[in-house]
Amino acid sequence: MSQWIVFGAGKGIGYHLVQYGLQQVHQVIVFILNAKYKTRLTQIGSQVIEGDACQYSDIKNTLADISNNSIIFSTIGGKSADLTGNLNIIKSAETLNMRRLLLVTSVGCGDGWKYLSSKAKALFGMSIRHKSMVECYLKTSSLDYTVLRPGGLLNLPATGNHQRIQLPQIGLVTQQDIAIELSNIAENKLTYQQTYTVIDPNLSFNMK
Predict the structure, then answer these.
(1) What are the domain boundaries of the chain?
(2) Sign of CA dihedral 51, 56, 59, 63
(3) Residue 207 binned pLDDT confidence (cut-offs 50, 70, 90)
């Protein structure tokens, strides 16, 4: 089985992805900033590396120590990680001749900006701009990339009803379903050099 390295594995999509990877008997390495997540990640069987994605040397040194055939997942975000952290991952992977990288950004990135409400732009606009910049950089790299743009994320059990589409669309999706989608397409060559929106059409903003 292929080796995985997951950036942003402490919680949310990243943590669920680690669980699915281990269930599929992959060797899973996780890179975390916050040491408070180390114990539970170690207990479920992953190899934990502590570091700061916004420090280029931390990322490059981590990737230099693993196989260049490893599959890289980035689910990091927030503050400078949206831009600087993700750029460091992409630059290091390319420098070290690694091949496969899956990046999680957000609906509203790139050509999806015009579909966002004024309120969403006010609240998340800078983060989405930074993620859009990262997408553009990744698409000009030598990596076999896939970009997933999840809808609004819900911390609920997976529904299995999510859809991966190539048109901008606004909607909701669970964190677990995004992790499932990432694990499903990790080695699917038909998804290389592609960008997808992922939403669950059965979930509604009017849900209570």
Answers:
(1) 3-199
(2) negative
(3) low
Tokens of 45: 């069987």
Q: Could you confirm whether domain 3-199 is CATH 3.40.50.720?
A: yes
Predicted TM-score (pTM) above 0.85 = yes
- Give the 3-state DSSP-derived string for the chain, with helices as H, strands as E and coil as C: CCEEEEECCCCHHHHHHHHHHHHCCCEEEEEECCHHHHHHHHHCCCEEEECCCCCHHHHHHHHHCCCCCCEEEECCCCHHHCCHHHHHHHHHHHHCCCCEEEEECCCCCHHHHHHCCHHHHHHHHHHHHHHHHHHHHHHCCCCEEEEEEECEEECCCCCCCCEEECCCCCCEEEHHHHHHHHHHHCCCHHHCCEEEEEECCCCCCCCC
Contact 61, 96 (CB under 8 A): no
Q: What is the pLDDT of residues 117-159, one digit of tens each?
A: 899 889 888 999 999 999 999 999 999 999 999 999 999 999 9
Residue matched to tokens 């080796």: 3
84-95 vs 56-64: helix crossing angle, rounded to 10: 40
